[in-house]
Amino acid sequence: MDAKAGENPPVVDVGESQSARKQGGWITFPFLAGTMLGLGLSLSGATNNMIVYLIKEYNVKNVDAAQIYNIVNGCTTLAPVAGAIISDAFFGCFPVVAFSTFVNFLALIVFTLTASIRSLRPAAPCTPDACEPPSALHFAILYSAVALLSVGTGGTRFNTMAMGADQFDEIKDQEAFFNWYLVALYVSSVLGYTVIVYVQDSVSWGLGFGLCAAGGAASVALLMAGRRFYRRREAKGSPFTGLARVVVASVRKRKAETREGGAVEYYHGISSQGGPPRDLTPGFRCLNRGAMISEGDIEADGSVSKQWNLCTVEQVEDLKTLLRVAPLWTSSVFLSISIGAQGSLTVLQALTMDRTVGHGFTVPAGSINVSSQITVAVFLPLLDRILIPAFRSLTGRALTPLQKLGLGHVLNTTAMAASALVEQRRRARVATGNQDWIVPMSVLWLLLPVAVTGLGEAMHFPGLLSFFYQEFPESLRSTATGVVALLLAIGYYTSTAVISLVRRLSNWLPDNINASRLDKVYWMLATVGAVNFGYFVLCSALYKYNNRDSSSTSTTTETPATETNDSS
């Protein structure tokens, strides 16, 4: 099958009889979605109830357990960034994903052993008279499981997504895959929040972690079962080295003289984009000098004499792409901050409200936020199969990634306002300042604003992933999806700093939630969200798509080109 403009030709393993035409496409989706379902279930089940596990089974103090949980959550959120970089720079997606799914399975085996073998944790739970702390060996085994889980998550979370997108040539198919990928991710998380946590609390910790291990084993089996169908991309070395060369070469040549008449020769080198050599685009013209050929830059055989004195036009344009995307990326940071703040504050509200539903069933306070994930899991298929096709038939156009991002911002700001209104209603029913007093108001009121947040996530994050994947250079695409993990991590950690700052500068958040002004906190988040939306609109109005109507190819060229210098 010949490579065409706008298509990425598949890479076929040597020795495989499968033709290039039959690799990639939707036949790979069941294997990749099943893999992600098993991975998501195992991660969610192993971490969501960890605070309770540490307190009840390891005799860890409450605050210490929360701190350990935050460290674990931070590791499993940031690790995908490193995994994406390693995939891009050295090994490619499939080897990293295959290795990491196996490591993930090993982590869950260790967790299961800690829950099943009594000698791997303190001999007895705490009593009012005595409390045996965990030993160094107990912590070492537990932390080894956490480390393995972080490695497993880091190598799979976003590399699986990038690997799935590589199976498709059309942007619309890639966008559909992103939506269904997130459905699998959120469904698995919901199952972990509910089924696995229930088994751990009500049956046994060993069985609960054992189910997680079964999910991990299933992910390994499904991934390997589909290996002959996958289209694979080879790693092309660290893309960040090339970007650094652009900066260094541009600085070194900042005073370089152009040739008489204004003609200047730019170096194209070996292009991974194929077709005709890429042209230098307007903007960030100071970077163009990094690709300008000066005396002594090129050897007689055509090679570059000093790597850090000359870069390619493609590398210059790759860095320009990152710089153009950066403002839109920063606009998404606040959205993650508000999601993190709402998630923690909603649990505090739930603890003060009537959590009984039906005949004696009590809703766990920590399960309130699962409604956001349920909303995403339900709404994404509707969006992909009904709403977006209906919009296309009515308008003749598809929703662009930036339009999805904008809707996500609007829904997120609306959710903060809804949380403020629910909190005002809750405060109106507070009859005493006693922090142990339960407000006669159903906890189900909290589901509405959390569900609206879920709608915002369903619009924003698939749009963000699609936007990054289509706009980032091919050499950075796995890293582009990993950038979302970095975005979420920054948001969650910053939300902790924001709450601490609010407590220091005001009396809105005392320890007694019944005497707090959470409504003002939510109104503050809504106000800042509205301002942030204005910033996003400005950034999106100034942004021009690079690859909306075409995607890159992968044939190569190796010729310098001569252009007219249009920069000083």
UniProtKB/TrEMBL annotation:
The keyword Transmembrane applies. It is found in: Membrane. GO terms for molecular function: transmembrane transporter activity. Keywords: Membrane, Transmembrane, Transmembrane helix. Its main location: membrane. Residues 550-568 have a biased composition (Low complexity). The chain crosses the membrane at residues 26-46, 93-117, 137-156, 177-199, 205-226, 442-468, 480-502, 522-543. GO terms for cellular component: membrane. GO terms for biological process: oligopeptide transport. The keyword Nucleotide-binding does not apply. SUPFAM superfamilies: MFS general substrate transporter (SSF103473). CDD domains: MFS_NPF1_2. InterPro entries: MFS_trans_sf, POT_fam, PTR2_symporter_CS. It is a multi-pass membrane protein. Belongs to the major facilitator superfamily. Proton-dependent oligopeptide transporter (POT/PTR) (TC 2.A.17) family. This is Uncharacterized protein. It comes from Iris pallida.
